[in-house]
Amino acid sequence: MLNVNRSAYYKWLKRTPSDRQLENEQIVEWIKALYEEQDGILGYRQMTITVNREHNTHYNKKRIRRLMQILHLKSVCRKKRYNYIKSTPEVTAENILNRDFHADKPNEKWLTDVTEFKYYVGAEVKKVYLSAILDLYDRRIVSYKIGDSNNNPLVFDTFDEAVRSNPNAHPLFHSDRGFQYTSKIFHSKLVAANMRQSMSRVGRCIDNGPMEGFWGILKSEMYYLKKFASREDLISAIEQYLNFYNNKRYQQRLKCMTPMEFHRAAA
User: Fold this and answer.
1) For 145-174, how does the pLDDT look when each residue is reduced to its tens digit (9 = 90+)?
2) pTM of the full structure
3) Could you tell me which residues come within 8 angstroms of residue 219 by beta carbon, excluding any fewer than 6 positions away?
4) Are strands 124-135 and 109-121 parallel, antiparallel or unpaired?
5) What are 73-92's pLDDT values in tens digits?
6) How many of the other CB atoms lie within 10 Å of CB of 94?
């Protein structure tokens, strides 16, 4: 009925799997386990790095992509929306960074920003805010704070913690023109820490591109994947992801190391 040659059928029936087929079966098991472990956030590039790092292998990303396509697995990440809130500045600074996102050593250039997250209590929508500082050299999160209001203490506490944990750091400090960063009090903190201030131009998110990119990664890989029904669950998820990002998320730009691995290697 199938027009299959009898000898070909029996040859297929008695065949033994090739070494490559057996290897692919092993890779598939690793892919499925990692995909489930990370809630589907790994695309084929991140999957390739993770498989190679965790199993000491050197597979090509094309092979991983092909196997993920066969399994119908792809990253569940979504794209980020951009928002800009106008403010009346007390202090402004030039865009000294000027989109030069390369750094030669740790604590040479820091970026910062605040982003919001929503959670739902019944039909009521509530928010928490995350303030963070990112090092351009190793892309690690230097410090962060989570609060219920997007206010000065949230940003000031984030900065103070970064200074306490890096007392000898005097980086170029870049931000947007949010009201916290243009306040006289914050400017005095920068002067006391011997840091130069740099600011994005009005409405130009790309001037703070890597920080915006980090928000996109965080929200795509953690926040957009579920709907949070309590403040505690949301804060726990944010903190767990930040720990994962700094210590377990491999990055191709960091020679397939995590931010903290790359930071320690430089030290």
Assistant:
1) 999 999 999 999 999 999 999 999 999 999
2) 0.75
3) 78, 80, 115
4) antiparallel
5) 888 876 555 454 455 677 88
6) 11
